[in-house]
Amino acid sequence: MSKLKEKLAKTIPALRDEIKDFMKQHGNKVISQVTVTQAYGGMRGVKALVCDTSVVPPDKGLIIRGKPIAELKDKLPEAVFYLLVTGEMPDDEAVKDLTKDLKSRAKVPDYVWKILEQMPKDSHPMVMFSLGILAMEKESVFRKKYDEGLTKTDFWDPTLEDCLNLIAKLPTLAAGIYRMRFNKGKRIDPDAQLDWAGDYARMLGVKDSTGEFANLMRLYMVLHSDHEGGNVSAHTCHCVGSALSDAYYAVSAGLNGLAGPLHGLANQMCLRWVIMVKDKFGGVPTDEQLKQFAWDTLNSGQVIPGYGHAVLRVTDPRFAAFHDFGAKVCPDDPLYQIVAKVYKVIPGVLKEHGKAKDPWPNVDAASGCLLYNFGLTEFEYYTVLFGVSRAMGMCSQLIVSRALGEAIERPKSVTTQWVKQEVAKG
């Protein structure tokens, strides 16, 4: 038994009893209300989900299992996944055990590649990624065990197996798709001696003489791993999984949500804007040039991509981590210099403008320029990178949900007429 599974087997019964007793004592307590604006506005701010893996306080940013993301930026993704699932940081031995376990599961079945090879050559990488995951559903341990007859208290065990199998294969799948879709040559097989994200970097085939691209991948996978339970990808995965659909169905569904322009495409939009600034000024603009350009952008009714956040009201600590990485690795890169200058200039402009609730940068303002610096310039692929990382959060939430025996998600919907009648009652 792996150290991760052993840890869960010991802790789940107590967690299950704790939640059961808590609901028995406080099940009727009201923890949220909903306004008409929230009902029509995407349920923004309505407290109706429980997610124990992470939280995003507006004044602090991402906190994973009680640990601020800044404290985790130098950890391997394997350690963060262990933390997400169990609530405890693993020791070095447990991290090595998990890395070894994942590497033993990393091979993608041949039939998946045959399916992807039949797709149109210009298929979107996210479609290929989601389809590749869905194609592997026949491998689901949970579905097989469920069909054989499985006690509800044991649902977490085969779910963990599915999630480990899936997470292990994602770098292999994603890297193979990159090389296939963008004509980079033959697929590169996984290396059992490397860590999860380091091997992903190698399988992409990006030149990395310094090893810093691998470090970027490790950082990227940690920073994007989880972000509460209400974002589209996490919520979609939870909703689909709550029907006892296995991890392949649920994660594929979550990734389809991540592919939307309002969710996972933000780093592409930010990078395009930075490149546009570079092209307009023939390099790095002066502070005054950038300030004027920002005002021209805002006065034309457009926004500054990468600035503002649905939840945060401070600089995203994930942006700070990428910013610091760039300062160390590529301080002379014009795109990085523009990102740094934008960070210096734009918040003041947005404050003076007055309409932005949050004038500070989010994670997407910096990640794209770093990928571009290392030669990974195919914008369409960036969301796949996001997806490989976010799968850790989706899977950890799914494992915890099955461990706690959470119910199928089924909120009550009402009609506009009903809302009008309720408002009329005063």
Q: Which residue ranges are poorly predicted, with pLDDT under 50 across at least 5 consecutive positions?
A: none
* CATH superfamily annotation of the domain at 266-373: Cytochrome P450-Terp, domain 2
The structural class is mainly alpha
Would you state the CATH class of the domain at 266-373? Mainly Alpha
**Shape field:** globular
Q: What can be said about the biggest beta sheet?
A: 3 strands, antiparallel
Protein name: citrate synthase (unknown stereospecificity)
Pfam family, one: Citrate_synt
EC number: 2.3.3.16
Keywords: Acyltransferase, Transferase
Descriptive account of the structure:
Belongs to the citrate synthase family. It comes from candidate division TA06 bacterium DG_78. Its EC number is 2.3.3.16. InterPro entries: Citrate_synth-like_lrg_a-sub, Citrate_synth-like_sm_a-sub, Citrate_synthase, Citrate_synthase_AS, Citrate_synthase_sf. Keywords: Acyltransferase, Transferase. Helices cover 59% and strands 1% of the residues. A 3-stranded antiparallel β-sheet has the order 1-2-3. The chain has helices at residues 3-26, 36-40, 77-86, 92-103, 110-117, 125-135, 141-148, 156-181, 196-204, 212-223, 232-242, 247-258, 266-281, 287-299, 317-329, 334-353, 364-373, 382-404, 416-424; strands at 54-55, 63-64, 67-68. It has a domain at 266-373: Cytochrome p450-Terp, domain 2, CATH 1.10.230. The chain is built from 19 helices and 3 strands. The protein is mostly helical and 426 residues long. Helix 3 (77-86) packs parallel to helix 18, helix 6 (125-135) runs antiparallel to helix 8 (156-181) and helix 10 (212-223) packs across helix 18 (382-404). The mean pLDDT is 96.
